[in-house]
Specification:
It is built from 10 helices and 2 strands, in the order ααααβααααααβ. The chain has about 325 residues and is mainly alpha-helical. It folds into 2 domains: about 1-155; about 160-310. A two-stranded antiparallel ribbon has the order 1-2.
Length: about 325
């Protein structure tokens, strides 16, 4: 009973850490969209060479606020990690989830520091910045995915069993990879919208298709195409998961995807039509995070279920040779 209460409290704290991290992510997007990334100069972790800058400009306040809130997020994940190590036994899946959360939070901070120290901020339109931004958002997805799994496991979610010859394992893996690639392309597209804004939709389309446009502009057109493909994969995976198991959790997260994916596609189309206003970029990013979280937890719920036996096949109670258990109970 006491263990169940502790697990519930831990899970509640984990969801809180996830919510706070999402808020920090959105504020980070505002730093990029407002051109405030150079607000502290090329100094990190100091701001313009000071711990607390004197008479800061608005861009400095925006950037410094992001650094401070990111620091709090790091402390929260460290607390999550310490709590997991203290409350759960050795080799427990919650410990592994918390360890991954801490790992990706540290790499998130390092990538952010790299953007500042290499001056890949403000009006920098290099491909190096584009690659950093792509890696940054992919790492962000891995971070919130790890925190989500940690919270879900804290509530009693089962161990993942990756069956090498199972369709669910293949579909989940391909869908998750597609979403990471889509995130990378989205980061590049958002950077292009920020650095090269268009006055009208017709002008934007003309720039996208012009061979003389900057590469960041030409790459923008890839994001909607990848979005359609990734959305098809995600919906296909959700349908397959629902048909493969009677799990309530799988069906619940699948329904969330059936709602979120079309809404996200609609917001994406609106974002293109309205020439990516900052407020709509926030909505688009937050919905992408929600789709990713739902996909991660739907996949985890499905992959923690026993393999569906074929007709006439006896139930197998011993672990199958083709099954890889990622964590112990």
């Amino acid at each position: 009973m006491i263990y169940a209460v502790k697990s519930s409290r831990f899970a509640f704290f984990s969801w809180g850490v996830l919510a706070y991290t999402l808020a920090v992510i959105v504020w980070g997007a505002y730093v990029r969209a407002s051109g405030s990334g150079a607000g502290c100069g090329s100094h990190w972790p100091l701001c313009n060479g000071d711990v607390i800058p004197r008479d800061p400009q608005l861009k400095t306040v925006i950037e410094l606020t992001h650094r401070l809130t990111s620091g709090v997020a790091l402390l929260l994940v460290i607390t999550l990690f310490a709590w997991a190590w203290r409350a759960f036994p050795r080799h427990h899946r919650v410990r592994r989830g918390a360890a991954l959360s801490l790992l990706f939070m540290v790499t998130e901070a390092l990538v952010g520091a790299g953007l500042v120290l290499f001056e890949l901020v403000a009006d920098n339109a290099s491909m190096a910045r584009a690659m950093f931004m792509a890696v940054h958002l992919m790492n962000t997805f891995l971070l919130i995915g790890s925190i989500s799994l940690t919270a879900w496991w804290g509530l009693g979610g089962g161990s993942l069993r990756l069956r090498l010859n199972d369709g669910m394992t293949l579909l989940a893996g391909v869908s998750l990879l597609a979403m990471l690639i889509l995130a990378a392309s989205g980061a590049v597209a958002a950077l292009g919208d920020t650095l090269y804004p268009s006055a009208s939709l017709a002008e934007a389309l003309k720039q996208d298709l012009s061979p003389t446009s900057h590469l960041l502009i030409q790459l923008r057109v890839l994001h909607p195409l990848l979005a359609v493909f990734a959305s098809f994969l995600v919906i296909t995976t959700a349908v397959y998961a629902c048909q493969s198991t009677q799990s309530t959790a799988v069906k619940r997260w699948s329904v969330a995807l059936f709602v979120l994916v079309p809404v996200q596609m609609g917001v994406g189309a609106l974002n293109v039509t309205l020439l990516a206003p900052i407020w709509l970029q926030f909505v688009h990013l937050l919905l992408a995070d929600f789709v990713w979280i739902a996909l991660v937890l739907m996949s985890a719920s499905a992959l923690s279920q026993p393999a569906k036996a074929t007709t006439g096949e006896r139930a197998i109670t011993a672990p199958d040779a083709s099954t890889l258990s990622l964590s112990r109970e």
